[in-house]
Amino acid sequence: MTELVYDVHHQVTFRWLIALYFYFTGMSAGSFVISTLAYGFGLEKFKPAGKVGVVMATLLLFIAPVMLLLQVGWPVRSVWNHFTFLNFHSPMSYGAFLLMAYPVNCMIYGYFMFKGDMKKTKMFGMIGIPLAITVHGYTGFILAFGKARALWNTALMPFLFLVSAIVSGIAVMILILMIKDKFFSKEKIINKEIIYTLASMLGWLIVFDLVLVFCDISTLSVSHAEAKETTHLLIAGELSPLFLGVENFFGKFVPMIIVLTPKLRSIRNIAIASALVVVGILFMRFVVVYGGQALPII
Amino acid sequence: MSKIRYAMVIDLRKCIGCNTCSVACKSENAVHIGVWKSWVKHIQKGEYPNVSKSFLPLLCNNCEEPICVTVCPVNANRVEENGIVSTDPHRCVACRYCMAACPYEVRYVHPIKKIVEKCNWCLHRVKVGLQPACVEACPSGARIFGDLNDPESEVSKLLAKQPVQVLKPEIGTKPHVFYINLDHDAVEIKREVDVL
After folding, report:
1. Which end of chain B has fewer beta carbons closer than 10 Å to its terminal beta carbon, N or C?
2. Chain B positions in Cβ-Cβ contact with residue A152 (cut-off 8 Å)
3. Considering just the CA atoms, what is the radius of gyration of chain B in Å?
4. Percent of chain B with pLDDT over 90
5. ipTM score above 0.95
């Protein structure tokens, strides 16, 4: 029998503020991508989502960095030192620049959209797509560079983050469009066509997300010792109710069935499915952030 | 003459688990209550009468390819000329990225100063030719500190003659704390999971 007699306590590194930061940037990037479908790629069907999307993307990206600044020990110094002592090897350095460039681009894009200058809207929409993808992709990249943690240290991490970002972006967009049409439009009628199109996009992206999660977890389960322990923690341990139950069953599987089954697809059910996704992805962020650090590594 | 590259050998055949190193470190570096730069993990194993205790003294490994230096966004961590990894308190903004990336969990946020700190083998002492506080305090002489590039140093001699092991060699950071008689069970056993 081996027993631990004495060990010291270690601080938890990243807490709920970081999870919320990932959540908000994700939804922002997702809404931005949807908004460019009409104004960047010219898909007329998505036009009603354009303006809502850019407002959401900008607002969320103003909340997100606040979470970061609350998390760091020296918020003002962090901005200043970032320019004076830049480290080109750190993903966080690039991320900070993206976090500054992306909301500015969002505002310019939104300004031209509301002004009706379609040519410039399209241009800034196209500049915005790589920015939106990288501003959220880099958050996964940051975790992937945390090489001590088995759950994070995988090249899949940026993609897991991106897909879940677009999933949560579409879901929150569906909800906002419904609320806007129902309560704040002249006709008080929900635009069914766009809701159904977005819902089927949501469904297939959830399928893709589930495949990615399956690839990630199944590879972890046969990897090195700490990876196996992490898999056990997620599948059968203390985090399994959150990971399997809330995140994957109620947050992804149930909404996927609802939006992809023709009989179940109604405006009310799509609203329920989107709400489930929005909550599910929030828990996904928490599971990734806390699950990565839950196991002691030394 | 080649450059100095400091390393530490911990001879666990001599370690008695007295924690003098932890206390000496706290005292020398004014380490805040609740956090540690150097500590000792104690385990016991077996059933009576076949029992034993093992100790695992832990501290910063001052790696040759430190991940903390790679990930720091403000270049607060750097590898000194003598191989010691130091943290600049005036640059650190406590983003905690280095804490997340360190495979040895040796970093912590100072509860009042709000900057990340860790063991730097008492760089201020080493610079003026003294030994790190833990090495000087160890009553059984289990900690040996010296220049890896000097073939006559005690560290070099021990590394040449003894079978040694480092913690987590698979991580690839090339740690520079070498253990003699390292107990696999002491490395494997972990404290309870604390989620949230």
Report:
1. N
2. 100
3. 17
4. 94
5. no
